[in-house]
Specification:
Number of helices of chain B: 22
Distance between the termini of chain A: 42 Å
Distance between the termini of chain B: 52 Å
Number of strands of chain B: 25
Largest sheet of chain B: 4 strands, antiparallel
Strand content of chain B: 25-35%
Oligomer: heterotrimer
Strand order of the largest sheet of chain A: 6-7-8-3-9-10
Chains: A alpha/beta, B alpha+beta, C mainly alpha
Structural class of chain B: alpha+beta
Radius of gyration of chain A: 18 Å
Mean pLDDT of chain A: 83
């Protein structure tokens, strides 16, 4: 499977990127409408979007615009809400309709990881937190688990800070560390895509900086979709940005373009701070 | 959209069947756990309903309007023309749905009641008749002036009999019964009686058990150095010390036993014999019944050892001087009235009229020998109306007949008292905890105490209630018990206890100058339970097994539940309400009263229903504090001295039947049989309906309160 | 009154509004109100304090009093006799087991016929009751036909015979109707319901035959069975002759020791009566003297005075009375030795290979085990007797241990009362453990299901139902245990393959620890379920979301994340459930069987099917019948105090677990 993923990777390391709509997409959202109340009202309306692989894509927009909802549709976390329903359209990841009949949400989530707004490590040790995903996947080999934990913690730039106390409780870490631990936990299962739902909103500026740094580094390996409230954060970390308003996708473009040269009036108003 | 390559595998495809089946397995286990518990619940309810509902359906209101009684299963021989009053017949029919009562027909008998007048004044009445009059005339309470405790016996003299008496005894015997004694002939004669005077030697000796026994009624002071038991032989010797030389006088019998040669006889220095001559009367008494005081009866027997008398108890255990402050118009059933007149010839009774109430009776036939089961009351009726009833065999089952009226009322009373007290204290306490107290140490202590109180086993509350309320609670009384914990004198008492109360409650009246300690000692030594010295005390003697003790024990038990629930509902009232009220110039109490309590009311109501549910089902705390298995009158029929104070006291200090205790009695304390089952299941189902109804009510109230209280 | 006055005044000075003074007054009023409410709040503290006070006050005198009683027990030589008694009772166990084994074997060999006859008798009696009336009439008709009048007048005889026939036909009908509905499960003894169906039908037929035939003879089938039974039993007795000889030898082994006990027991008892009389002599003397002073009549005064003077106030001569005990030590050795040798030779004759009944074989195995221990027991007794000294004071520690670990709870005994907690505590504990072991998996399983998996509808329906269980009064469950569950368990446990599979089955007594434990398990469900569900509910959603986002399945999330996160809350729930169960009274009082003895743990897990008594049960049962302030009364309060402490410490443990838990989050 890894080989197939590689084939999807664009050339990285070059600043000159092909136009957004020409890139190979990792996630394709096609005319998606979504409702939380059995289809009475649509929270998301007719969204069509192609998210390219191995880049950071940011979702921005005012509160209640549906950006988090869309994010949670991508790994079917919205399934947990019993009254929710896809009323129209589809989402494909790696070319597979994730709401299709053959798809198991559990398997999907192994490929599409998620980092939450409020860091939420389990009340277990650091080691157990990181190895959790692998263990439930059936991995029992201690050596391989050790390797995976170290690799993930290194990737999450946390290894040096916690390597001496892997068996102590994760709840003893600072907020920023906890959030990075959650990221480490997510990448330990080697997902293709990592969804981040305002990952820095509960962190102080220094911790935020560290996490942002981490996000840009991870983009080499993973496709990252990040929901953020902060436009500056979006501009700092993302390659592409999508702007939503009232459940609709208003604009999607390279981040630089969107911020410097918005094509829609609403986008401009929002990023210049006229509403929201 | 890029079309997926056909050979490409779906990366998200469902796989790993084994994991999946483990999932299902666990889920199934969980489902089974849940539904197994549900099934058990329905099983328990179902079984009780299945067995109890037919009982309730069969007995219907009878079950609710009668108190528990002994159930009698009588094997009646076949026959015709059995008679029962209509209502009794209905009950018998109810109890024996399978029995065929043939040829039932209605008839009528008159129940006659005599109405008569006793003029004002003080009359001597046997106390058996006092009880009889009082039970036939509701509200009558005859006070005593004095009481002669002699018990009367009816001695039957079958034929003319010659009896012998000491002359002194004869007078004693004859005086109280002169009215109805028919003496045919009296004859005086003399008898010689021998007495012996012994001078007993001091010192240690050995006496046989027989000698010691004979010496027992004499005045000799001796000390046995060992313990006598019943299985020792009469000739067995015991070490005895006679402290000093003594002179005793004994009769012939004793003399012959204690004096003689050999081991075990009494060592004497000298013995002299005197002969006394006593007068005797030989009397011939006509056949008949004689009402004789108990002491005279013993004299009679002693003097005439050869004659057997047949004896039965008369309607007096003593004669009281009953006080009638004004003319009393009373009623008695016909048969009783006749006895009453016969046994009280000296009483100035004026007959007024004969009332007759027609009663419908049912006459029926039984084709074959039949087992009839019925409560004891109906069994008595059957015996009264069918004097020639032939009973082959009879079994009785305590508490298994009748219904559950007494227990039901008892439980209601207990629960009401408990909830009134618990709510009063509970609401006040929660108001304090939530509105007044800071976050101090006190608050912490109270909460800790409450948490722990909630976990204390109910039987411990029973012990607590027994100690505090039953044995040691304070009472204000002018007749304190001698074995109370301690007593505090308060003020001179307002009125003296009546003579009747003194007798009934074993009160010793002492001079008001006597010290309390002396009075206690005096009462104790002569075996009285209470004393009266014209002073009112706060006496820590407890309330006995009573409604008050039981209710308060339950209240204490349910307090944590109520406080916790009330606090919760108070906390749910938004802070803004209080602030708004205070800002408008209301005092703290005013704002609590007007802006907090009304909104917390639904929650408090729910709490109280929850509390009722909890206490109504409890048995252990009331076992030694309030409940009794049998009680003849309903809790509202208060007997005893008239007056609101007495009535209140008697009401709260009476013991009660209670439904859970009744179930315990019929389930655990009487032998099981098919005849006890209807009562067991019926009472249980009824109890379950009451408790579950309350539980349902509390759930419903909670839901309603939650819906309503949204601000 | 003064309030009113000030009020009026203030109204004047504040222009009728009076708010200023009212406030001052209001403040006073506020203080009163506050104090009043505060006082009520303090009641919880006061109650706890009073409970502690009363329990402690009644219990604290227990140990000194008990020690004094036991000291008398020692001084009077009862203790000495008690040692020999204990030794004898060990032999008694062996003896009765031997008789049981023999009885079981004989029954086993004749069982096939014996059971048929038992069923036959039961059915006969039951049909007799069912057709009572008509049978009675038939009897009368028969009597009429048998009378002298009938002898003389053939008409009467004829009429009587016709009547008899008519009644007989009716009786036949009634009985056959009754029997037709009767199935094997209706039999009163559960183990009989296993008799073969064809035999059962034959028995039914025989019953109606024998009851309606004129000569009232048993049907052929029954007669045949009886003959077979007699033959089988004779054959069995013959085959078991050597075995029976062993049994008899064991039985006779104790003769000498018994004789000794029979002599020593009354002697010691008498010394005790002596001692007790002496202990109370002073008080009695004083009471009599006081009584004579207050006597109502001169005659009575003189009597009481004499009686008072007659009371002996010198102590008994223990030295002399106990000498007979000291002298009997040698005789005891001889008696015990002969008991041992005879028992051994008797046991050697109990050859298990000639037995067929499993029950009998089991018993022989126990006998062999016990007889090996008998010599230890004898040595122990021997040593105890040799070092025994009536003058040695009874130590406080021994009293203390005697209470907490004593195996006997004996009250109202003519010999000696013992207050040993062990049988009650073990009963309480075993029942509570059964209840918790059964209740915990079900309640927690249900909590997980309702909290994590169930649909919304199930949640709203199941939760109130389970909470409703908590409202079922315990007395109702007790009654259910007596009337339904006991029989049910007995029937189930009589099923052959189950009885072979599980220890303790078939259950001998309807009321036992298992029965009580099951009911208490049911009672504990709402407590554990509600608290555990709360604990699960309190686990932050973020945890399960994180787990799901990592691709964990629902079950993995529940078991690996949610459940561990809630574990302390669940532990607290279990502890509180345990507290509730161990403090429950009515169910155990009604259902546990109330046998006061330490359960026989040699039965392994089967111990749970034995009857037992409990700490709560003993209080409820005996409290109402003891006098205030007696030793028995104090002992019961002591039990209450221990129960109270147990429940407090369970509460405390649960609270500290919860505290730890809440600190964690």
């Amino acid at each position: 499977m890894t080989t197939e993923t590689e084939s999807l990777q664009p050339q990285i390391g070059t600043n000159e990127r092909p136009a957004l709509d020409q890139e190979k997409s990792m996630i394709e959202i096609d005319d998606l409408s979504f409702s939380y109340d059995h289809g009475k009202t649509d929270t998301l309306k007719n969204i069509t979007l192609k998210i390219p692989g191995n880049q950071v894509t940011a979702f921005i927009g005012p509160s209640g615009c549906g950006k988090s909802t869309l994010l949670r549709c991508l790994n079917r976390m919205n399934d947990l809400v019993e009254t929710s329903k896809i009323t129209n359209g589809s989402i494909s990841i790696l070319g597979e309709d994730i709401y299709g009949p053959r798809v198991d949400a559990i398997q999907l989530r192994k490929h599409v990881g998620m980092v939450f707004q409020k860091y939420n490590p389990f009340p277990k040790s650091i080691y157990d937190n990181v190895s959790y995903g692998l263990r439930i996947g059936g991995e029992k080999n201690k050596k391989r688990l050790d390797e995976a934990v170290e690799r993930s913690l290194r990737s999450a730039a946390l290894w040096d800070e916690v390597k001496d106390r892997l068996q102590s409780s994760a709840l003893g870490l600072s907020g920023g560390q906890q959030q990075r631990l959650c990221i480490a936990r997510t990448i330990a299962v080697q997902p293709k895509i990592i969804l981040m739902d305002e990952p820095c909103s509960a962190l102080d500026p220094i911790a935020t900086a560290k996490v942002e740094e981490l996000i840009t580094e991870l983009a080499d390996e993973f496709t990252i979709v990040i929901v953020t409230h902060s436009m500056s954060q979006a501009s700092r970390v993302s390659d592409n940005t999508a702007f939503y308003y009232l459940g609709e996708l208003i604009e999607f473009d390279r981040t630089q373009n969107l911020f410097s040269n918005p094509s829609k009036k609403q986008t401009e108003d929002y990023i210049t701070g006229r509403f929201g | 959209m890029p079309t997926p390559k056909p050979q490409k595998k779906n990366p998200f495809e469902k796989k790993k069947q084994s994991l999946f089946s483990k999932e299902v397995l666990i889920a199934i286990v969980l489902v089974v756990c849940t539904y197994f518990i549900l099934a058990c619940t329905f099983g328990v309810f179902g079984k009780i309903i299945a067995n109890g509902a037919p009982v309730l359906a069969q007995y219907g209101t009878h079950f609710l309007t009668r108190s528990p009684e002994t159930l009698v299963v009588t094997e009646v021989a076949e026959g015709e023309n059995f008679v029962l009053p209509e209502d009794a017949f209905e009950v018998v029919e109810l109890y024996n749905p399978k029995v065929e009562f043939k040829n039932t027909r209605e008839g009528q008998t008159d129940e006659k009641t005599e109405r008569f007048k006793i003029p004002a004044g003080v009359h001597a009445i046997p106390d058996g008749w006092v009880a009889e009059l009082e039970s036939a005339n509701k509200g009558l309470y005859i006070n005593w002036k004095s009481r002669n405790p002699d018990v009367d016996l009816v001695v039957e003299v079958a034929e003319d009999t010659v009896l012998t008496f000491d002359s002194a005894n004869w007078e004693k015997f004859r005086t109280p019964i002169r009215d109805n004694m028919r003496v045919k002939r009296t004859e005086l004669f003399n008898v010689k009686e021998t007495t012996h005077t012994l001078v007993v030697k001091a010192g240690k000796t050995r006496l046989s058990k027989g000698v010691i026994g004979a010496l027992d009624p004499t005045d000799l002071i001796y000390i046995i150095q060992s313990v006598l038991t019943d299985d020792d032989a009469a000739s067995k010797l015991f070490d005895v010390e006679i402290p000093n030389q003594q002179t005793i006088t004994v009769n012939d019998n004793i003399f012959n036993t204690v004096i003689g040669e050999g081991e075990g006889k009494l060592p004497t220095i000298s013995a002299s014999t005197d002969v006394l001559i006593t007068d005797r009367s030989r009397v011939t008494i006509a056949a008949g019944h004689y009402l004789v005081p108990l002491t005279s009866y013993f004299d009679l027997k002693d003097a005439n050892p050869g004659i057997q008398f047949s004896v039965r108890q008369g309607k007096r255990e003593g004669v009281v001087m009953g006080e009638f402050p004004e003319d009393a118009t009373l009623e008695l059933p016909e048969a009783l009235y006749a006895d009453f007149i016969r046994e009280n010839p000296a009483l100035p009774v004026e007959h007024i009229e004969t009332l007759s109430t027609p009663t419908t009776t049912i006459t029926f036939d039984l084709g074959e020998p039949t087992d009839l089961s019925m409560p004891n009351t109906e069994r008595n009726q059957l015996a009264i109306f069918n004097p020639s009833l032939k009973v082959e065999k009879e079994q009785s089952f305590s508490y298994s007949g009748g219904g559950v009226k007494g227990p039901l009322i008892g439980t209601a009373l207990l629960v009401t008292l408990c909830i009134v007290v618990a709510l009063f204290i509970g609401v006040s306490a929660s108001v304090y905890l939530n509105e007044y107290s800071g976050k101090g140490k006190f608050l912490k202590t109270v909460r800790l105490a409450m948490l722990n109180l909630a976990g204390v086993p109910s039987i411990i509350f029973g012990l607590f209630g027994l100690m505090l309320f039953v044995i040691a609670a304070p009472r204000v009384t002018s007749t304190p018990a001698v074995n109370d914990k301690f007593k505090i004198p308060l003020f001179p008492s307002l009125s003296e206890p009546s003579m009747r109360k003194m007798e009934a409650e074993q009160i010793l009246a002492v001079d008001s100058n006597t010290s309390t300690a002396d009075a206690v000692i005096k009462a104790k030594t002569i075996g009285r339970a209470k004393f009266y010295k014209g002073w009112t005390f706060l006496s820590f003697e407890g309330w006995g097994t009573s409604l008050l003790a039981g209710g308060l024990t339950l209240a204490v038990m349910v307090l944590p539940v109520i406080i916790t629930a009330c606090e919760e509902s108070l906390r749910a009232v938004p802070m803004g309400f209080r602030e708004a009220s205070l800002a408008l110039g209301a005092s703290k109490w005013q704002s609590i009263r007007t802006a907090v309590l009304p909104y917390a009311f639904p929650g408090i109501l729910t709490a109280s229903v929850l509390g009722i549910t909890r206490v109504a089902g409890e048995t252990a705390p009331i076992m030694f504090t309030a409940a009794v298995a049998a009680k003849s009158n309903s809790p509202f029929e208060i007997t005893g001295e008239p007056g609101i104070v007495n009535a209140t006291e008697n009401f709260f200090l009476q013991s009660l039947q209670a439904l859970p205790y009744h179930i315990y009695t019929v389930a655990g304390r009487i032998p099981q049989s098919e005849f006890t089952e209807p009562m067991q299941y019926g009472a249980t189902l009824l109890f379950l309906i009451v408790v579950m109804g309350l539980a349902g009510l509390s759930v419903w109230l909670r839901i309603r309160a939650r819906k309503k209280l949204k601000w | 009154m003064s309030k009113k006055a000030t009020n009026k005044k203030s109204r004047g000075s504040f222009d009728g509004r009076g708010s200023g003074n009212f406030r001052i007054l209001g403040l006073q009023l506020q203080d009163i109100i506050k104090a009043f409410f505060g006082g009520n709040a303090a009641i919880a503290v006061v109650v706890i304090a009073l409970i502690c006070f009363f329990l402690a006050r009644e219990a604290y005198q227990f140990f000194p009093d008990y020690r004094a009683e036991l000291e008398v027990y020692r001084k009077s030589g009862q203790e000495f006799v008690g040692f020999i008694d204990d030794e004898a009772s060990k032999h008694q166990e062996i003896k009765s087991l031997a008789f049981q084994a023999y009885g079981y074997e004989i029954y086993h060999r004749t069982k096939q016929h014996e059971q048929i006859l038992e069923v036959y008798n039961e059915l006969r009696n039951r049909s007799k009751t069912a057709a009572k009336g008509v049978l009675e009439l038939r009897q009368r008709a028969f009597d009429k036909g048998d009378s002298i009048a009938a002898e003389l007048d053939p008409k009467i005889k004829e009429a009587a015979e016709a009547e008899y026939k008519a009644h007989n036909t009716r009786a036949e009908k009634v009985i056959s109707e009754y029997l037709a509905e009767f199935t094997r499960d209706d039999l009163s003894t559960a183990s009989l319901s296993t008799i073969p169906k064809e035999d059962f039908e034959l028995v039914k037929k025989s019953v109606s035959e024998s009851m309606t035939s004129k000569n009232k003879e048993d049907a052929e089938f029954i007669l045949e069975t009886k003959m077979l039974r007699d033959a089988a039993s004779e054959a069995a007795a013959k085959a078991l002759e050597p075995f029976y000889a062993g049994v008899m030898e064991i039985s006779a082994a104790r003769n000498e020791l018994d004789k000794m006990i029979k002599e020593l027991r009354p002697h010691a008892l008498k010394t005790k009566q002596f001692a007790v009389a002496y202990e109370s002599a002073e008080a009695r003397k004083e009471a009599l003297a006081e009584g004579s002073e207050n006597a109502t009549s001169e005659e009575r005064r003189a009597r009481l005075e004499i009686e008072s003077k007659r009371v002996l106030t010198t102590p008994p001569n223990y030295e002399e009375r106990n000498q007979i005990l000291y002298d009997s030590i040698e005789a005891h050795s001889a008696a015990a030795d002969s008991m041992l040798t005879q028992t051994r030779s008797g046991v050697a004759k109990l050859d298990a290979s000639m037995l067929k009944s499993q029950d009998a074989i089991d018993r022989v195995a126990i006998i062999q085990k016990k007889s090996k221990k008998l010599s230890d027991e004898i040595n122990k007794t021997e040593n105890a007797l040799r070092v025994w000294n009536h003058k040695e004071p009874y130590s406080g520690w021994k009293t203390f241990f005697g209470f907490f670990f004593g195996q006997k709870w004996v009250t109202n005994s003519t010999w000696q009362d013992f207050y040993g907690l062990a049988p009650l505590f073990s009963g309480s504990l075993i029942i509570a453990v059964i209840a918790i072991v059964i209740s915990v998996p079900f309640s927690i399983g249900a909590a997980i299901y309702v909290n994590q998996i169930a649909t919304q509808f199930e949640k709203t329906a199941i939760k109130p139902i389970l909470e409703f269980i908590g409202a079922i009064p315990s007395i109702v469950l007790g009654l259910f245990g007596i009337l339904v569950l006991g029989d049910f368990l007995q029937k189930v446990s009589a099923i052959e393959w189950l009885a072979n599979l599980l220890p303790g089955f078939p259950i001998e007594s309807r009321l036992n620890m298992l029965n009580a434990g099951l009911l208490l398990a049911f009672m504990a469900v709402p407590t554990i379920f509600t608290l555990a569900e709360d604990a699960l509910n309190n686990v932050p959603r973020a945890h399960s979301e994180a787990s799901l986002a990592l691709g964990a399945t629902k079950m993995q999330t529940v078991l690996k994340v949610v459940f561990p996160a809630a574990i302390s809350g669940i532990l607290a729930a279990v502890l509180l459930g345990f507290g509730r169960v161990i403090g429950e009274t009515m169910v155990v009082l009604l259902v546990a069987g109330n046998r006061i003895s330490v359960p026989d743990f040699t039965a392994g897990l089967g111990v749970i099917t034995q009857p037992a008594h409990t700490m709560t049960g003993i209080i409820a049962q005996e409290m109402g019948e003891v006098g205030e302030g007696t030793l028995h009364w104090r002992a019961l309060f002591m039990v209450g105090l221990i129960l109270f402490l147990i429940s407090l410490s369970l509460n405390w443990a649960a609270q500290s677990v919860i505290r730890k838990f809440s600190r964690h989050h």
